[in-house]
């Protein structure tokens, strides 16, 4: 279900149409579109909260807002080589590594890079 919703959100973004136009063509209520997008965002935040990431914004459901969190200063150190087996890109952030495989779909790479850019 969530994958189908994610596909719809991506389809709308790639269509070049605004949400109202895209929903009219697809016969979808705009409120349904916004609900699904909200649920996908919540699922993403929930999946990141357990990963002990210090930069994760805190969200107060009673009054939606982003509470600024200080980002730690970057530290540069020699890193051990990771076994990337076919990875074409390795992104390291706050002690975590993201390997993007050669076979990754362009939409998945775009999503990962958008998340990384928002950090």
Characterise this structure.
With 119 residues, the protein is α+β, with helices and mostly antiparallel strands. It has a domain at 1-50. Helix content is 45%, strand content 14%. The chain is built from four helices and four strands, in the order H-H-H-E-E-E-E-H. The chain has helices at residues 2-15, 19-26, 30-49, 106-117; strands spanning 58-59, 66-67, 87-93, 96-101. The strands form two sheets. It has a two-stranded antiparallel sheet. It has a two-stranded antiparallel sheet with strand order 3-4. A hairpin with a 2-residue loop joins strand 3 and strand 4. Helix 1 packs across helix 3. It is elongated. The model has no long low-confidence stretch (mean pLDDT 76).
Question: Strands, helices and their partners?
Answer:
Layout (H helix, E strand, L loop, with lengths): L1 H14 L3 H8 L3 H20 L8 E2 L6 E2 L19 E7 L2 E6 L4 H12 L2
Antiparallel strand pairs: 1-2, 3-4
Helix pairs in contact: 1-3
Short summary:
This protein is α+β, with helices and mostly antiparallel strands. The chain has four helices and four strands. The chain is 45% helix and 14% strand.
């Amino acid at each position: 279900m969530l994958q189908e919703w994610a596909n719809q959100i991506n389809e709308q973004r790639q269509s070049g149409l605004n949400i109202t136009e895209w929903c009219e063509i697809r016969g979808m209520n705009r409120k349904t579109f916004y609900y699904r997008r909200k649920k996908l965002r919540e699922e993403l935040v929930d999946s990141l909260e357990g990963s002990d990431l210090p930069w994760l914004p805190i969200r107060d459901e009673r009054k939606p807002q982003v509470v600024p969190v200080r980002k730690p200063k970057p530290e540069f150190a020699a890193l051990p080589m990771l076994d990337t087996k076919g990875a074409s890109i390795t992104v390291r952030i706050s002690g975590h590594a993201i390997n993007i495989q050669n076979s990754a779909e362009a939409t998945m790479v775009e999503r990962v890079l958008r998340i990384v850019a928002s950090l």
